[in-house]
Design a protein that fits this description.
The protein has about 270 residues and is an alpha/beta fold. It has helices at about 15-25, 40-45, 65-80, 105-130, 150-170, 215-230, 240-250, 255-270; strands spanning about 5-10, 30-35, 55-60, 85-90, 135-140, 175-185, 235-240. Helix 5 (about 150-170) links the parallel strand 5 (about 135-140) and strand 6 (about 175-185).
Length: about 270
């Protein structure tokens, strides 16, 4: 069991990528703190967890609410003398063009995807400094590496995460604190269904075809478990087409832009 004895806190753990991680960590022997906004959904996720020797603790809270966030951190840090890993996985996506999107929707996405995670990180950071050990992980996306239409503010938030956590790694290198950015794409979840439209309403459906062209949440979780052990700085867990698009963005920006324009037109008809 490669994570035996470790205590790992996962936000956004009630479904999708976060639940997949928690299931793998459970089998690998870790104590797990599972967080999400909805306590009932967390209970449902726990009911499907595999057997494992570690503890499972639930901490339901809204990542954007300062009081709930602080209370959750106090609860977790009070219960566990040692916290080894915090995985900021909670997030929300977008399905709207920049020109149509209300500014309050932009703010909401930034609160969930950027300010919430870094605020929780700052609540945990003193414990990691005191321990002289710890590991921050944050779920980004290919949208944190290059443009993806209909996701302008989502892209902005994910790009911002890279800037923050890459710098945090440098600032606390001598405190033995690791930082890993998870660049993921092609993993089935409800992120599109709950994505915000221009007016702030939910998109309401999944627009990713899936099929054989996907990475299952537990496959993703297994790769993340390896990254915890090896303390990798950035991990790409992506289906092959997205890796090729990222390569194109780096090698031929003009061709990449044209390809994304075609993707935008295709998406508008889905």
């Amino acid at each position: 069991m490669k994570l035996a004895g470790k205590t790992i806190w996962v936000t956004g753990a009630s479904s999708g990528v976060g639940e997949g991680m928690a299931r793998v960590f459970r089998r690998e022997g870790a104590n797990i703190i599972m967080s999400g906004k909805d306590a009932d959904e967390l209970e449902t996720a726990v009911g499907k967890m595999p057997d494992g020797p570690g503890l499972i603790h639930l901490a339901a809270f809204d990542i954007t609410d300062p009081n709930e966030r602080k209370a959750a951190a106090n609860e977790v840090l009070g219960k566990f003398d040692q916290l080894d890993v915090l995985i900021n996985n909670a997030g929300i996506s977008q399905r709207s063009l920049a020109k149509d999107t209300d500014l309050e929707v932009d703010r909401r996405i930034m609160e969930v995807d950027f300010f919430g995670p870094i605020a929780l990180t700052k609540l945990v950071l003193p414990r990691f400094i005191e321990q002289q050990s710890g590991h921050f992980m944050v779920t980004s996306s290919v949208a944190g590496k290059h443009a993806v239409p209909f996701r302008t503010t989502y892209c902005a938030a994910k790009h911002a995460l890279h800037g923050f956590y890459d710098t945090l790694r440098v600032e606390h290198y001598e405190d033995n604190i690791a930082v890993t950015i998870l660049v993921i794409a092609g993993i089935p979840s409800n992120i599109a269904k709950h994505a915000l439209t221009s007016s702030g309403e939910e998109f309401g459906r999944n627009d990713y075809g899936g099929g054989k062209l996907q990475i299952l949440p537990e496959e993703c979780g297994a790769r993340v478990a390896d990254a915890i052990v090896s303390r990798e700085q950035e991990v790409k867990i992506c289906i092959e087409p997205t890796l090729k698009v990222a390569q194109l963005a780096a090698e031929d920006p003009v061709a990449f832009t044209k390809q994304m324009v075609n993707f935008m037109k295709w998406s508008a008809n889905q």
